[in-house]
């Protein structure tokens, strides 16, 4: 039976998921820990290390998380640059690329196309996104002078403009709750993979169809690897398999549609709060990790020689 992947039919469903997820984020618990100010990022194109704490000075901060293949991100770029021109003397405005399946020349293309003049940073391992509750791009985060998150949104609209204007005019605004995994949550999510041998397959429910236009080669790779996953798993039986899908733009329905489409034989789960992608430094999908007692033995992103891969993974 041919399965119709519902998210292909109408990308509005995708935006609805983002809205619902961000609504949850807006009322989740944030411990008040401002350690995200010390997370190491990289400047583009210089690749110099930078942190929020090192450049904030006495100004509020406006961060926009984005990706070059994210269509709504591109729609928001003109407004983003207009805000930069208007408020650059009063607010530190930074474009934070999420660095998933990213191509460096594409970043340069976006900067040139929209004439972006704000600094562009790379969330190199996704750690800042996890700390600030990123569930999908575009994602705007406003931080007051005290380092408190005061507003988050995926929209670029009058409401965002209002909060930016208040910050620019000296209002500190009240700290907003946002979601980041606690040390206890992180430990609990990592515990199943800290003992024994596992093959962890990392992908996304959307990499096959959402990237089809903006990154066709990546899309084809996702499709081919996901179609061949069952066959690979059937040939490598001396290790436990588990699939992990990226939490961005994803809910239980998206995962079920994905599993039905590819008739997956191994168990899959959504990467809760982005913990596994961050911990195992997954910045390209699909990726397969051979993990033994919590340590990565092999990291595989080239699936072009399946027979060689079977021998490689079957080793003791």
Commentary on this structure:
- The chain is α/β, with parallel strands linked by helices.
- It folds into 2 domains: 38-180, Glutaredoxin, CATH 3.40.30.10; 184-314, 3-Layer(aba) Sandwich (Glutaredoxin).
- The chain is 38% helix and 19% strand.
- The strands form 2 sheets. The chain has a 7-stranded mixed beta sheet with strand order 2-1-5-4-3-6-7. A 5-stranded mixed beta sheet has the order 10-9-8-11-12, covered by helices on one side.
- The two termini are 38 Å apart.
- Mean pLDDT is 89; it is low at 1-32.
- Residues 29-172 form the Thioredoxin domain.
- Keywords: Membrane, Transmembrane, Transmembrane helix.
- InterPro entries: Redoxin, Thioredoxin-like_sf, Thioredoxin_domain, Thioredoxin_ResA/DsbE_sf.
- One of its GO terms (molecular function) is oxidoreductase activity.
Q: What is the gyration radius calculated from CA atoms?
A: 20 Å
The largest sheet, given as strand count, sense and whether it forms a barrel, is: 7 strands, mixed
The CATH topology of the largest domain is what? Glutaredoxin
Tally the beta strands.
12
| Oligomeric grouping of the chains | single chain
Let me know the CATH homologous superfamily of the largest domain: Glutaredoxin
Percent helix, as a range, is 25-40%
Coarse morphology: elongated
Low-pLDDT regions: 1-32
Q: What's the CATH C level of the largest domain?
A: Alpha Beta
> Could you state the order of secondary-structure elements as H and E?
HHEEHEHEHEHEEHHEHEHEHEEH
Key attributes of the depicted protein:
seven-stranded mixed sheet; Glutaredoxin; five-stranded mixed sheet; 316 residues; 12 helices; alpha/beta; elongated
